[in-house]
Amino acid sequence: MERNSRFLIKEYHRALVPVMISVLGGTINAIIDSAFVTRRLDSGALAAITYSMPVFLVLCLCGCLFGVGASILSARSLGEHDKDKATGYYHSMITLSLITGILFIAFGIFCTDIITTILCADPNLYSSVKEYVTITLRGAPFYILIYVPNYYLQLDGKGKNLSVMMLIMIISDIILDYVFLYVADLGIGGAATASVLSVALSVIYGFICLQDKNGMFRIDIRKLKVHDVGDICKFGSVSALGSLLDVARLFFLNRIIFSSSGMSGMEVWAVLNALSELSLCILTGIPRTAIPLLGIYHTGHDNEGLRLVMKIEVKTGLFLISVYSVLLIVFSGPIRIFYKMDNAFLFPLICLGLSVVFELICSILGSFYNVTKRILLANILMSLRILVCPVLTAWLLMRAGFDIFLFLPIGMGLVVISIPLLSYIRSKFKHEDGHELSKLLLLDDFMEKNGRVKTFSIVASDENICSASEGITEFCTEHDMDHKLAMKLGLSLEEVMTVVAKRSLLKSDDPVEVRVYAYNGVFGIGIMCFGKKFDPFVVSDDEDEMFMGIRMIEKISKNRKYIYTLGMNILSVEF
């Protein structure tokens, strides 16, 4: 019996599309606004949106800080089978989002002129930038709160609802943009209002879905308190830093590109920004889909599972980002016509296409380091990726007189080159429990190297379950468990797997993942499978005789934990 990647591939791809659509929702909104503004108004209005973008990114910073931090902690808590702790982080995120959104509204009332003066480099666009910034800040609570269902619908196994939520935002934004710009003729303020209202509708739908009676993350007003802020901010700091550095990056690059190429360069830069937003569904969606799985496997010390998830991320991501890059180049002509570009546009698109391939690798590794508690390394990588390398490269190219948009692939290539060096230094800097860490992923492989763990995947037929039971018995005997006890354990687990497979209504080809380990006198068994929610240790009295093996497990086990998340039954038992 061997472990294969079918289980993880199926779970990852099942969650990927809804997550990509959720990321695409915000991206499409930006593209929709840019397209409507460009065709209804002029390129100056598009530049005004670009100048205003740092305000939106600051709101994203707060949403990412709370959303990524809380969701990672919830995923890790679910890996430990602690439902109360997972829902506690959820309620803390809601409370923090509400408070922060209200503070942004107050800030916007008193400081809009100051913000606009700082952001706008072109005096002719001052009024347009101010109007867009004002309306965006009025909608701050919705822009931050949308991250709550965005992350927790995935954890609750409601991928379809997550997709619908984003479709509501996209469709309503298209309709409202048309009404406000063409019918009501509200100008750039109409585009900003359409974005706020479409996000608000999406947020409302998302929270309604989370309130489902069978959901894990239902709002309990009594739990709406602020606690564990330090841990939430710690794990969310990487994504929040990325949003913060995005603000600084746009600020500096806007000025460098304006100094190098004038208004024509800014128009190209504005379109590249809009198109690069489209790539975020891959650059952000690929690693974000893996966060719950990485959190569960890391708390379970399943290094093999972590590596399999990473391989799936890289293969899937490189395929999708390559398709995106090729489409940019193939459709360079229609893109130029759509955005009314008079300048040469193919070369900047090639630069963008190359840069996102490098950026994907950085994004996947940065997210992995964050979830696996290498937070300082993740923050260093984020700083290099978002700000240091792109801005420094752009400045040097401007001084040298080269094409300014070469900064995109060159800057990101420098980041990729730096990753092996950074991880090597980190692996030498500190070892855990006296064990050496692997060079790139920085994992402690002591148990794997010493044969203390075995993981395999089976299709839940009676024959396969019987073979799995025998394999578990042999493993326990090899690691000094009493032979008779190992036999009882194997037979009992055979019944547990059979009951779980039948009661969770697994399909005939659905895999079951089994993991057994022995470390420091503790024997542990883990079982993961798809299907309907079913806890085998909650049995009614009239079924008691049917579950003799389960009763035996209860008598001889030290800890028994069950959780249902990501549409999976996850069971662990320790002896």
Describe the structure.
- By secondary structure, this protein is α+β, with helices and mostly antiparallel strands.
- It has 2 domains: about 425 residues, no CATH class; about 120 residues, Histidine kinase-like ATPase, C-terminal domain (Heat Shock Protein 90).
- Helix content is about 70%, strand content about 5%.
- The chain has a 5-stranded antiparallel beta sheet with strand order 1-2-3-5-4, covered by helices on one side.
- Strand 4 and strand 5 form a beta hairpin.
- Helix 2 runs parallel beside helix 10 and helix 11 packs antiparallel against helix 13.
- It is elongated and about 85 Å long.
- The model has no long low-confidence stretch (mean pLDDT about 85).
Summarize the structure.
The protein is α+β, with helices and mostly antiparallel strands and 575 residues long. The chain has helices at 6-40, 43-79, 83-119, 126-138, 140-145, 147-155, 159-183, 188-210, 229-283, 285-299, 303-330, 332-338, 346-371, 375-400, 407-429, 446-449, 462-478, 483-503, 548-556; strands spanning 453-459, 511-519, 522-529, 559-565, 568-574. Strand 4 and strand 5 form a beta hairpin.
Characteristic key phrases:
Heat Shock Protein 90, alpha+beta, 19 helices
Strand content: 5-15%
User: What is the CA-based Rg, rounded?
Assistant: 26 Å
Task: Give the SSE string.
Answer: HHHHHHHHHHHHHHHHEHHEEHEE
What's the story with the biggest beta sheet?
5 strands, antiparallel
**DSSP strand count:** 5
Shape: elongated
- End-to-end separation in angstroms reads 23 Å
Which structural class fits the helix and strand makeup?
Answer: alpha+beta
Number of helices: 19
The strand line-up of the biggest sheet is: 1-2-3-5-4
Helix content: over 70%
Integer count of domains: 2
Average per-residue pLDDT, rounded, comes to: 84
Low-confidence stretches: none
